[in-house]
């Protein structure tokens, strides 16, 4: 791959072309308090979602709520739907959701999901990149 190539690896060994214009990720480092995040929710610029899904016992308590930009709630819902299918098939028995943050922002830079089984050697580990 040359430095001027516009291919992005999404699956090991499989290159896919990027769209002609790629919008840079928004910087959320200015969202340095829960109050700022809530104001952005009121303006429709952020959304408050549960980190650990309610379908798996997560609650609406403050420690389980995160602030994310538009598009991320839908992606998180798709991951949850996939997890529900995998659970129904008995493919995992351990589930964790971890967030990474940049600077002092209340908006995570990514959400890392890990669904594993204590006996089966398969895992589902999507990463939702936010900014």
Structural notes for this entry:
With 131 residues, the protein is α+β, with helices and mostly antiparallel strands. The protein is 20% helix and 27% strand. It has 2 helices and 8 strands, in the order ββαββαββββ. The protein has helices at residues 34-42, 72-88; strands spanning 7-11, 14-17, 47-50, 65-68, 94-100, 110-116, 123-124, 127-129. The strands form 3 sheets. Strands 5, 6, 7 and 8 form a 4-stranded antiparallel beta sheet that branches. Strands 1-2 form a two-stranded antiparallel ribbon. It has a two-stranded antiparallel sheet with strand order 3-4. A hairpin with a 2-residue loop joins strand 1 and strand 2. The longest helix is centred in the middle third of the chain and has 17 residues, at 72-88. The radius of gyration is 17 Å and the shape is elongated. The two termini are 25 Å apart.
């Amino acid at each position: 791959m040359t430095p001027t190539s516009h291919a992005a690896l999404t699956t090991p060994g499989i290159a896919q072309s990027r769209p002609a214009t790629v919008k840079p990720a928004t910087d959320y480092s200015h969202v340095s308090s829960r109050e700022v995040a809530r104001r952005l929710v009121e303006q429709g610029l952020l959304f408050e979602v549960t980190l650990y899904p309610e379908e798996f016992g997560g609650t609406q308590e403050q420690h389980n709520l995160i602030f994310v930009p538009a598009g991320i709630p839908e992606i998180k819902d798709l991951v949850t739907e996939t997890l529900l299918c995998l659970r129904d098939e008995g493919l995992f028995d351990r589930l964790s959701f971890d967030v990474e943050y940049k600077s002092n922002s209340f908006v995570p830079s990514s959400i890392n999901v890990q669904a594993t089984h204590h006996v089966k050697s398969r895992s589902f580990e999507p990463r939702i990149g936010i900014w």
